[in-house]
Structure formats: C-alpha cells, structure tokens
C-alpha cells in the first residue's frame, strides 16, 4: 500500500509542477547556463521525485492495463491540445509500464545485461537510427513521444524520450527489488540526465542519447553489490534497499 504521507507529498509536488508548467513563460529569463542549472538541479529532480514516491506501486497488480490506460489518456489529451496533462500522463504510463516490465527479469543478471546493452542501442538510434530521423525530419512526432522540461521565461523545452522514462523507472524499481542503494541510485540517475543536458548544450548538439547515462546511474552506485549478486546468482527478490 502507498502510505498517506508519500501520496500527499506526491500530490503537492505534482500540483507545484503543474503551476510551473502553466506559468514558466512568465518566469525569469537569465541565460542558457542558468536554464541548464534550473532544469538539471531543480526541475528534473522534482519530476523524477514522483517516480521515487511511486515505488510502492510496483507491488500492485494490474500495472500493465493501468499503464496502457495512461498511454491512451496521453493520446486523447494530446489530440485535445492539453499538452501539459499529456506530458504527465506519459510519465505515469512509462513509470507503471517500467515497473511491470521488471516482472519479466528473473535474476539481477538480466537487469545488468539490459543496462549493458541499451546504451549502445540508444547511441546508434540517436546518432544514425530512427531517433535521429524523427528529431531531424519529424520534430513534432518527437515532442509527442517525449517528456518536456520547459525552460523558464521561454517557450523552449528540453525533452527526454519515453524509453528514457521507462528505463529510469525500471532501474529504480530494480534497485528496490534486489536490495540495492535506492536513494543513491535515484540521485545518480537524475545526475546522469543532468550531465547529459549539460554536454548537449556545451557541445551545441541537437541531442545526446540519455540511456548511457541512465545505465551508468544504475550500475555505478551499486557496482559492488551487483558484483556480489552476480557471483551468487539468485532469483530477484522483493526487498527494499536504503
């Protein structure tokens, strides 16, 4: 069961985020590096705190149908030109589907294998594959298939693709299930995304793959624990780490 305090905190945080998203164009306009700092150090942690607070939901049944329902809701809201709420419906959908997808991983070695493979797939997709094609030729499609982090004082936004959101939730839930360092994992995942945005702006790129950073955000803070688990293979448990 989700505790009352986390639920109230998540509700208050979501309300604050909705206010920011609705009013961000009227906020300050302080220059690009202040924008990067705001998104990386304030906005992203606030958004992904919702995923951290939602971790108890990984125990619930029906994650897949509810996740799909949020996918459909995001589509309806996008068609209805309610982009703000479609944005958070995508976050809810990918979080629940990420939790559900973890149920197919029988041992921690499977999670480590996925964390070792997806950075290469994502890098190819962003630099030469379908993501590059969509971002270059169909920017509106990418905006629909991504989560926006609006820049204060502007109409611009930094975007993360829905696979990035899904794997963020999956790796965070995996850390909780196998007794890894959950809070440290969350912090490293968020920091890795912030560094990705910093590098994108610093090198003046149209985009960088986010999944390499997400994979490292899971592997690095838990390297010693993962190594010990890999040496003694065991089924994925459902214990919660600190």
Topology:
Layout: H1 4-23, H2 32-53, H3 63-79, H4 83-101, H5 108-127, H6 130-137, H7 139-144, E1 146-150, E2 157-161, H8 162-177, H9 182-202, H10 211-219, H11 223-231
Antiparallel strand pairs: 1-2
Helix pairs in contact: 1-2, 2-9, 3-4, 4-8, 5-6, 5-10, 8-9, 8-10, 9-10
Q: What's a quick, concise take on this entry?
A:
This protein is mainly alpha-helical and 242 residues long. The chain has one domain (4-231).
* Amount of helix: 55-70%
Which regions have little confidence, pLDDT < 50, spanning 5+ residues? none
Strand order of the largest sheet: 1-2
Oligomeric description of these chains: single chain
End-to-end CA span: 18 Å
**Number of helices, where a helix is a run of at least 4 consecutive DSSP H or I residues:** 11
Strand count, sense and barrel status of the largest sheet are: 2 strands, antiparallel
Shape: globular
- The domain tally reads 1
The sequence of SSEs as H and E is: HHHHHHHEEHHHH
Strand content: under 5%
Describe the fold and architecture.
With 242 residues, this protein is mostly helical. The chain has one domain (4-231). Helix content is 69%, strand content 4%. The protein has helices at 4-23, 32-53, 63-79, 83-101, 108-127, 130-137, 139-144, 162-177, 182-202, 211-219, 223-231; strands at residues 146-150, 157-161. It has a two-stranded antiparallel ribbon with strand order 1-2. A hairpin with a 6-residue loop joins strand 1 (146-150) and strand 2 (157-161). Helix 1 packs antiparallel against helix 2, helix 5 packs antiparallel against helix 10 (211-219) and helix 8 (162-177) packs antiparallel against helix 9 (182-202). The longest helix is centred in the first third of the chain and has 22 residues, at 32-53. The model has no long low-confidence stretch (mean pLDDT 87).
């Amino acid at each position: 069961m989700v505790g009352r305090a986390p639920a109230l905190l998540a509700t208050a945080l979501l309300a604050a985020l909705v206010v920011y998203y609705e009013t961000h164009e009227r906020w300050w306009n302080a220059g690009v590096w202040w924008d990067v700092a705001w998104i990386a150090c304030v906005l992203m942690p606030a958004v992904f705190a919702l995923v951290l607070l939602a971790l108890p939901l990984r125990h619930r049944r029906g994650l897949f149908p509810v996740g799909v329902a949020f996918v459909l809701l995001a589509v309806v809201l996008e068609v209805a030109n309610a982009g703000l709420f479609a944005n958070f419906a995508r976050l809810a959908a990918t979080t629940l589907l990420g939790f559900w997808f973890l149920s197919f991983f029988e041992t921690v070695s499977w999670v480590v294998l996925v964390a070792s493979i997806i950075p290469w797939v994502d890098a190819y997709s962003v630099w030469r594959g379908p993501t590059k094609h969509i971002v270059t030729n169909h920017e509106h499609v990418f905006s629909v298939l991504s989560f926006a982090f609006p820049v204060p004082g502007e109409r611009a936004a930094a975007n993360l693709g829905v696979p990035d959101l899904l794997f963020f939730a999956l790796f965070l839930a995996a850390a909780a299930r196998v007794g890894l360092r959950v809070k440290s994992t969350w912090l490293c995942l968020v920091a890795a995304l912030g560094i990705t945005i910093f590098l994108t702006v610093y090198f003046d790129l149209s985009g960088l793959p986010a999944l390499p950073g997400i994979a490292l955000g899971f592997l690095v803070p838990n390297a010693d624990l993962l190594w010990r688990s890999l040496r003694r293979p065991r089924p994925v448990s459902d214990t919660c780490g600190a």
